[in-house]
Amino acid sequence: MQNPIHGIDHDRVTAWLVENIDGTTAPFEFSLIAGGRSNLTFTVTDANGTKYVLRRPPTGAVLATAHDMAREHRIISAVGNTAVPVPPALGLCVDEEVNGAPFYVMGYVDGVVLDGVERAEPMTIEHRRSAGFHLIDVLADLHDVDVDAVGLGDLAKRDGYVERQVRRWSTQWEKSKTRELPAIDEVAKRLAAQLPVQRGVAIAHGDYRFGNCLTDIENGRISAVLDWELCTLGDPLADVGYLGVYWADSGTQQLRSNDPTGIEGFPTYAELLERYAIRTGRDLSNIDYYVAFSSWRLAVISEGVYARFLHGAMGDQKLDEETLEGFKVGTEVLAQAALDSMQRL
Fold it and tell me: CA–CA separation, 264 vs 285, rounded Å?
């Protein structure tokens, strides 16, 4: 029998899987997927070698709204009926007696998470370019989804997205900050003072980038979009601006180490913007505001991750002091980048 794994009640989860997920055969092997910095994600392999994925909140005290498993399961179930590739949603458990917290199970999708340069190095230049364009095409498809037709019309308020987000993440900062960063407060004030007019409503992923997708590196295609915990309804340009925080044109400095785009082959950010604008007809002339907003919001999220590791809420995932310090400094860098972007407007 497998040794105990933090975050999984082996016997009770096994019984639940057999009863609720068609085709599963006990016993199961559970393995924590490395790299997750928020919700805990496990590979589940049954007796026949079939793989599934189980996702649950971090253990310990966390901000409840950021880890709603039922909501996340609902989103991927709905998006799974569109052209946007997502893992199939297979089951949801809201009975905390089973595993100490709600969790859901989805199908396993093959692919590579391009969360660093080394992951993209085996790709040909042509496949890097096609993967980059497919990434923005999938985002355009997501933003084209009729939220009412897929049953997500009541997922969140439709209007005032950026205003709500500035308010929300300002509150999250107050709850999870470990120190004072004046740049965070300054950017929040400027964002609120220069709120853009929202044009239309779309499903906003909230964390859209290569690092939250599975990529078929042999064909330069996105196999599945992952990590929907920050998804809401709102201004689609926020997702486009968020890509700009991560994206590095070839030959320029890669500011985010968990992104591959600075090496040869990937399209430039300007090319992505042009392609998205042509596909959607949306005006991107104010995209720098959304880049600034996204950098600021990511700084707040980064601080939350840093705080959770400090407080031991991430299960068996341990960080050495250097990596932990990297999260702390990363928050500061993002905050300053957000301030710099606002000053360019």
Answer: 27
